[in-house]
Write a structure and sequence with these properties.
Helix content is 21%, strand content 34%. It is α/β, with parallel strands linked by helices. It has two domains: 128 residues, Thiamin pyrophosphokinase, catalytic domain (Rossmann fold, 3-Layer(aba) Sandwich), CATH 3.40.50; 68 residues, Sandwich (Jelly Rolls). A hairpin with a 4-residue loop joins strand 6 and strand 7.
């Protein structure tokens, strides 16, 4: 890694693919409450475990008793995931991989992770959200290039109107397009080369299912 990358374990769905394992290799890890359930499957030893521990498994609590904890009351005003992100940033994180950020039984949490990732990117902290089989890459004003395998399916979902949107290296390209909030124009596209995306104004997220 060329910058300090921290991995955050969250409570959503996760499949431990080879691509995911490569993305988090040799990164310090912080677990957020029930996200600790992913640690063993990924072969990880978190340096910190945070949360109110209302969703942590009793077996994980016993198995990872040696991991330092930050315990919060259930009535706190932040999610366990946001607390974990803040702790990583306090420790010098310049990039984040949020494992288990997508899917699961809490759509509200998954949406929060996506919007939080966009806010962090505006603060110059890149974020990858991943469940292994699906990845999320926040988009704000700027230019991006991605290393997805050809044939990977992807969509761009707008969090606001997106101005000056360009997409190249895909089955359907766009050039300086305005994407309205709520539009389905950019759903169900396909990677055909080196995917590049640029945006002049707005916020959104690129969701992709990398071909294995």
């Amino acid at each position: 890694m060329t910058m300090t990358t921290y991995t955050i374990l969250l409570g959503g769905d996760l499949v431990p693919t080879l691509r995911l394992k490569a993305q988090i290799a040799d990164t310090p890890v912080i677990a957020a409450d029930g996200g600790m359930r992913h640690a063993a499957r990924l072969g990880l030893e978190p340096l910190l475990w945070v949360g109110d521990f209302d969703s942590a498994d009793a077996q994980d609590i016993a198995a990872y008793a040696r991991v330092p904890r930050l315990v919060f009351k259930p009535g706190k005003d932040k999610t366990d995931g946001e607390i974990a992100v803040q702790e990583a940033c306090k420790r010098g994180a310049k990039r984040l991989v949020l494992c288990g950020a997508l899917g699961g039984g809490r759509t509200d949490h998954a949406l929060l992770h996506m919007t939080l990732a966009a806010v962090l990117l505006e603060k110059k902290i890149p974020v990858l959200l991943t469940g292994g089989k699906e990845e999320g890459w926040p988009l704000v004003a700027g230019s991006y290039e991605f290393d997805f395998p050809q044939g990977s399916l992807f969509s761009i979902v707008a969090f606001s109107a997106m101005e000056g949107l360009r997409i190249h290296g895909a089955r359907w390209t766009l050039d300086h397009t305005t994407l309205a909030f709520g539009s389905s124009l950019t759903l169900s596209n396909e990677v055909t080369g080196r995917l590049s995306v640029s945006l002049e104004q707005g916020r959104g997220i690129l969701l992709v299912q990398p071909v294995v």
